[in-house]
Design goal:
Elements: H1 18-31, E1 44-49, H2 55-66, E2 70-74, H3 88-98, E3 101-106, H4 109-118, E4 123-128, H5 134-148, E5 154-159, H6 166-175, E6 180-185, H7 194-198, E7 205-207, H8 210-213, E8 219-222, H9 233-239, E9 258-260, H10 281-299
Parallel strand pairs: 1-2, 1-3, 3-4, 5-6, 5-8, 6-7, 8-9
Helix pairs in contact: 1-10, 2-10, 3-4, 5-6, 5-10
The chain binds phosphoric acid mono(formamide)ester.
Length: 307
């Protein structure tokens, strides 16, 4: 696979090389020093979010504005002509013709792929069902490298709803590009797909209990139970509240271990963790703007050299 983001879709973290990760993280660090650039003054990002979002949509919009560009943003499907029976394919063709990059969030990963097939401009997956959330994984990598100085040689615990969390899946795929060791901790009903784990080539992956690995890990990645993905309310009710990370859960951890979370959180991560030096999830969300500035600049082929 060739390196580089320019003019390319980002549908899966599989589309990204290790060198790409390093490039976007390096540029994000530069972007974090600037609140405003004018390199995208003639560029338009079109966002169509079929599912709710706080961080992804608003940080992409903020990133585009900070690059000097503009956004067209749809977050209520009822306000579009899909309601009149227009096809998704025609809708994406039109949106593609209006802007320079298309950002799509949908519950069905095939819809995000359809947008990529139809559009001539790059399409970025802003969250595809339970499948993938590649830009979240890049943000995760950014906060890890910012906090611990590297991505290689670290031990991770990815905890929670690993069946339905697209963010957890993308993170595991990203870690496979580095020298990582990964523990997966989840209720039995919410384990990660065996097929995804079987495809991991470099990162040794083991299942376990947090209490057994807490002294060994460098990063604890917590995810909420993804209520909106469960086939029935009864299946959600059966696992709701089945795990919660509190200050007590961190007893025996390394002094510099970090706790990260893609957010939103519900009840799986206690507020008593917020005031500890381990908590990095709010900083992680804030870094989303710099990371997405870098990603948009690279995807749009902008001259991102900062004087
Ligand atoms: N982490 C994340 O995707 O958050 P939002 O759903 O608020 O965009």
């Amino acid at each position: 696979m060739a390196d580089g983001f320019a003019g390319r879709d980002l549908i899966s973290i599989r589309d990204v090389t290790r060198r790409d990760v390093e490039e976007v993280l390096g540029l994000a660090e530069e972007m974090s020093k600037r609140t405003r650039l004018d390199i995208a003054y003639d560029k338009l990002a079109t966002l169509f979010f079929f599912e709710p979002s706080t961080r992804t949509r608003l940080s992409f919009e903020a990133a585009m504005y900070r690059l000097g560009g503009h956004c067209l943003s749809i977050h209520d499907v009822r306000s579009t002509s899909l309601e009149k029976g227009e096809s998704l394919s025609d809708t994406f063709k039109i949106l593609d013709s209006y802007g320079d990059v298309l950002l799509i969030r949908h519950s069905d990963p095939n819809v995000v792929r359809l947008a990529a097939e139809v559009a001539d401009n790059p399409v970025i997956n802003a969250g595809a069902g339970r499948d993938e959330h590649p830009t979240q994984a890049l943000i995760d990598a950014y906060i890890i490298r910012r906090s611990l100085g590297r991505l290689d040689g670290l031990t991770f615990c990815i905890l929670g709803d690993l069946k339905y969390s697209r963010a957890a899946r993308s993170l595991l795929l990203l870690l496979d590009k580095f020298k990582a060791k990964v523990y997966l901790v989840s209720p039995p009903e919410l384990e990660m797909d065996a097929s995804l784990i079987a495809g991991i080539e470099n990162a040794p992956v083991k299942k376990g209990a947090l209490s057994d690995v807490i002294g060994e890990i460098d990063v604890l990645y917590v995810t909420r139970v993804q209520k909106e993905r469960f086939p029935t309310p009864e299946e959600y009710e059966a696992v709701k509240g089945s795990y919660k990370i509190t200050l007590d859960s961190l007893r025996g951890c390394k002094a510099d271990m970090i706790v990260i979370h893609p957010l939103p959180r519900v009840d799986e991560l206690g507020k008593d963790v917020d005031s500890t030096p381990h908590a990095r999830y709010f900083q992680q969300a804030a870094l989303g703007i710099s990371l997405r500035m870098a990603l948009l600049a690279l995807t749009l082929g902008l001259d991102a050299r900062i004087g």
